[in-house]
């Protein structure tokens, strides 16, 4: 059922709080009247709510006290942003505690929040929602895993729907408490590691057998434990910086585990990339990941920072009548539209430029001016839509501001190279003519540099064809190519002299990119007696 809450003229600010076994996280979001949202702050603080709990299923008074203090501080912070609604959930430690009511009562009294304790399957669903909404999966099916302090959630699914959800009583704090001596300061012996590994294997064996029958195109890992292991693998094993922490190979995971197990706790805290606060529980978390990857035959896993909080946000959006962005849009489409609207772009102009740039792209391909495909066309579409986003900062040099905003925004579903390409296309939609030496894209091949120059030219033409921001040009397409010249037909129902002058100003730049002269033919408005139209060359 859809929420009946309406977004006022000033927007609505909501705080999402996730009370986990290891940490409390908060996300504060402003929902804007134009169907976009803005993230105001993300906060995280370790509380170790589950510390010592898994022996007798009772949260310690100290752990409850720490959690209440952090939640109260987070609520106070959210109120400085004028938060008017708090959505709070608690996971593994709270749902298993025999004194759960004590925790919830104190949170209500001391932090003024009502906390909903969610099941393991609901936690898995929200994590799937948060992670999948930030990935460009297309037709691929992914295996998702999130390792918390008290439980591990997995799911199997595609872009819009999951096919499997599971929650296991396996977590970094839980397994540390169960198998490693309290406050152990020494290395982890091979026999200790194998004991934990066997325990995990026994717990997941039936689920693994089911998953093996399914197609897995991609594995995705979220949560602090997995992210930290990827950081360790990248920085400790590859100090030269040639391996990214965005993907963790199974072989590197094994090497990182061997390195950590061989060190006493204090030395472990000094390993490059490690979060020192996780040093005492990181090995237990790594066992879970390593066992799943080994049993499923996964050679690598993609790392994401998205998780339960993002799923809470997506779930909230999906229940609101005023926010259609969640619907059937892909993560790429949704994140581009969301970014544009949050920066107040002129959406009508953005759509006109995008439409015209795509018409030019398609017709240019028909006359063999280029041979690019769907991937390049898609990046052109998004770059054209966002080309003026820099006006949010200032109209002066807004093409440079557009570059900066696109490059540094969290555009979900894109990899860094794609973001860099779109940022550079937007950067060259006006003013300085694009040249290879001006491109700021890491690890881009020569043919991709060429592609940026071509796509930027199409945006420049699309921008010129809506120079008055009045939508005067209905269509623009290349109709023929000769040895030294190509002809662009411009179809308009009204006088569009400003647009024609704009395109003419791009003729020299066009010739440098394509080594052909750009000829312009304008199809004059039709009248009742002139059914065939006229061309002004």
Itemize the secondary structure elements and their pairings.
Elements (H helix, E strand, L loop, with lengths): L11 E8 L3 E9 L5 E10 L14 H20 L4 E6 L1 H5 L3 H11 L4 E3 L2 H13 L9 E6 L4 E6 L4 E7 L3 H8 L10 H22 L6 E5 L1 H13 L10 E3 H12 L3 H4 L13 H15 L3 E4 L4 H11 L12 H12 L4 H20 L7 H12 L12 H11 L7 H12 L18 H19 L8 E9 L3 E8 L4 H8 L2 H8 L2 E7 L11 E2 L1
Helix pairs in contact: 1-3, 4-11, 5-10, 6-10, 7-8, 7-10, 8-10, 13-14, 13-17, 14-16, 14-17, 15-16, 16-17, 17-18
CATH secondary-structure class of the largest domain? Mainly Alpha
Count up the helices. Answer: 19
Uncertain runs: 527-534
CATH level-two architecture of the largest domain: Orthogonal Bundle
**Biggest sheet: strands side by side, in what order?**
8-7-6-9-11-10
Largest sheet: 6 strands, mixed
- Shape label: elongated
Structure report:
Helix content is 44%, strand content 17%. The protein is α/β, with parallel strands linked by helices and 537 residues long. The strands form 3 sheets. Strands 8-7-6-9-11-10 form a 6-stranded mixed beta sheet, with helices on both faces. A 5-stranded mixed beta sheet has the order 3-2-1-4-5, with helices on both faces. Strand 6 (142-147) and strand 7 form a beta hairpin. Helix 7 (224-236) packs across helix 10 (282-296), helix 8 runs antiparallel to helix 10 (282-296) and helix 14 crosses helix 16 (416-427). It is elongated, with a radius of gyration of 27 Å. The model is unreliable at 527-534 (pLDDT under 50).
